[in-house]
Amino acid sequence: MNNKIQLITYVDRFGCENLNDLNSLFKKELKGLFGGVHILPFFNPIDGEDAGFDPVDHQLIDPRLGEWDDLLELGKSVEVMADLIVNHISSKSMQFQDFLQKGQQSEYVNLFLSFDHVFPAGATEADLLGIYRPRPGFPFTTFKFLDGSSRLIWTTFTGSQVDINVHSKEGIKYLNGILSTFQRAGIKQIRLDAAGYAVKKQGTSCFMIPETFEFINELTEVAHGKNMEVLVEIHSHHQTQIEIAAKVDYVYDFALPVLVLDTIFHQDASNLLSWLSISPRNAFTVLDTHDGIGIIDVAAEGEKPGLINSDRLSDIVEQIHINTGGKSKKATGAAASNLDLYQVNTTYYNALGADDQKYLLARAIQFFAPGIPQVYYMGLLAGSNDMELLAKTNVGRDINRHYYSAQELLDALQKPVVIKLVELIKFRNSHPAFNGEIYLQNADPKKLNITWSNVNSYATLEADLKTGHFSITFSDALHQAVEKRF
Description:
The chain is of the alpha/beta class. The chain is 33% helix and 20% strand.
């Protein structure tokens, strides 16, 4: 993995009709701007109930986007990351439909996780209440089979996303088959989607249990054998994230988005600097993704304190709602369906009140934080909340998933805030200091000072949190000091 900023995007929402169009962007308008691209689900179909995260066929690119040779060609322009959806498959998939028709006689009978796989003697009330849930309700759906019988099938996320028995021969074969297809397509990195829920065991939370780590390690070994690195997607308490990071290639720094908001809203970098002093170094840093802004990642968990106390965290969430003019409220919680319990849905630009200066400061902080930065396509374009799409789908996260036309994309790239953001991206990609060590100064919580140093090269971010203005001082090729003010 090269230490350059990565783009996260859908193909069809980023001014492109297909993979060839996306490749053209990387050869022209975005040439040299990103070290890699995480293409959000491009499998068949891209427009299911969960925007591609419910594949009917995980080994088929949606024909509207192209084919595997097109992805292989794209990989010549930029390194490609793809999602390995390890927890589930669409209920419309050939495999599950065969199971519904043939029942116990289906060759896929052991591919899917039924209630009795985990609770062969039945479940107690404590068993069911102890299951960690990302969304309301219990993780089971009743399916009726052709012979008239019914069974409870694990459906962690929605009733159309049926969970895979990852420890069965069929489950292992299914996941390994996807990895082999990825390898042939030249994919260099995979993101394990929803990996924390993949292993279920009676008497546990069925989330990030010891057996989950074993599963991730086994799958990672297979990926390494196919020359792919692994990014694990887990939303959890920050201490859990640190523990996970020690056992995998890469994790997300999901605490950073809220900590940056905390720093800017309260003009106080104390919580942020405390986290950066202990945060995993093998992290992908984000401010925004295709999901909402995670709250659980900075919150307390039982007796374990969070990175931000509960009162201050509530203030942050309320300030987001104020900054968005209440639009984020319409996309969060009970106001919209198909949402996660622990996320606030809005674009990051709108979370900061569409304030260009604060937004650029937020990105500068991200780029100076330890890890490899990823920038979501809505973030790259300083996009605003799409209330029309939200009204159409009533899916909360769609507020931050606008469909850009080709012209909209070109226009957005000319916005002053985007031009300055591109300047920051190019600096982060090119300066050798970011391959060195980080140094944090916290003498004055109203000011932020982060330095990266690598032999004779250095880069320092200094920000006045009262005004939002910041400067970057760095060594040039002749090791002379240069300052840029923002």
